[in-house]
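User: Structure with KG4, tokens only please.
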Amino acid sequence: MLVLGIETSCDETSAALVVDGKEVLSNVIATQLDLLRQFGGVVPEIAARRHTELIGYVIKKALDSAGKTLDDVEAVAVTSKQGLIGCLLVGVAAAKSISYSRQLPLIGVHHIEGHIFANRLSNPRLPVPHICLTVSGGHTMLLYVQDSVRYELLGTTLDDAAGEAFDKIAKFLGLDFPGGPVIDKLSRQGNRKAFSFPRPMMRARTLDFSFSGLKTSVTNAFREKVARNEDLPLADIAASFQEAIVDVLVSKTIRAAEERGASAVSVTGGVTANKRLREAFQETCRRKGIEVFFPELSLCTDNAAMIATAGYARLKRGEISDLNLNVLPSAPLEV
Ligand code: KG4
Ligand code: ZN
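Assistant:
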């Protein structure tokens, strides 16, 4: 079955064609990097307007590059839950018009479920149950994935998401936006032991996360250097900050796997593109005898192929939305 996926929950306008939730024929992603750089982050109203300008073009490009037309499409899946309300509305309105005019099933998808399915798309042999860490600009969530579409929330962030902490620290250090990839690259020239920043809640019994105290420690260390007129070792600060986040993410995920007796973990969402995070997971999982799975890089950040794949799984279970489908900016992931 050929599913058209549409994703506009934040700052990427994306459309994709995926066959049977497995084979990606196209996955077109238009980023709003120019706007992000201009405004130092996502401005919801401006992002929604850009989606409106791009959505038709992106859908057409997804069809053209796969050598398909709307006549070939058999279902439409769209992100309807979690994201910026104005942005979600653009994708949902587009999906509804295609579904109505072509009489195709419509499936509303939760954005986080999309990220979970990105890993399935890259790793068809990802087993269930497993522990899934979703780390993006908007979320840091630890989930117990019981079966294909049943999840138990084990922990979440109490303040900033991990990607948000990367973005805010990069901004504070005067680096480019989004901060995650910039800190990732800069850290490769730095010493990750140069500063001993705190690992918030790493030893706490709970599987929740918190990154605001870490951010404060980094900004304090930077300001102390400035006050003392000392050199500003940006690469060392970046590498030490990144290491603190990575340590917490890896240690809590492994603890969740051990507590639940899971033999596999999957890591998904934009921050999964981070090289050091992947390295640290691989090292620790090898030692602990746990298998670790990551999506390929093009499926880490927001994209519509993951939405088409999650939508196909829901459709197979008979879960179809109707034309009343509404957007839910902060809906929890259904369990
Ligand atoms: O999943 P995503 O595209 O959008 C959300 O759903 O939030 O994730 C974007 C986030 C941004 O915060 C960005 O800084 C972060 O993912 N990110 C990274 C890297 N690439 C993207 N963080 C750390 N290292 C990276 N290489
Ligand atoms: Zn995302």
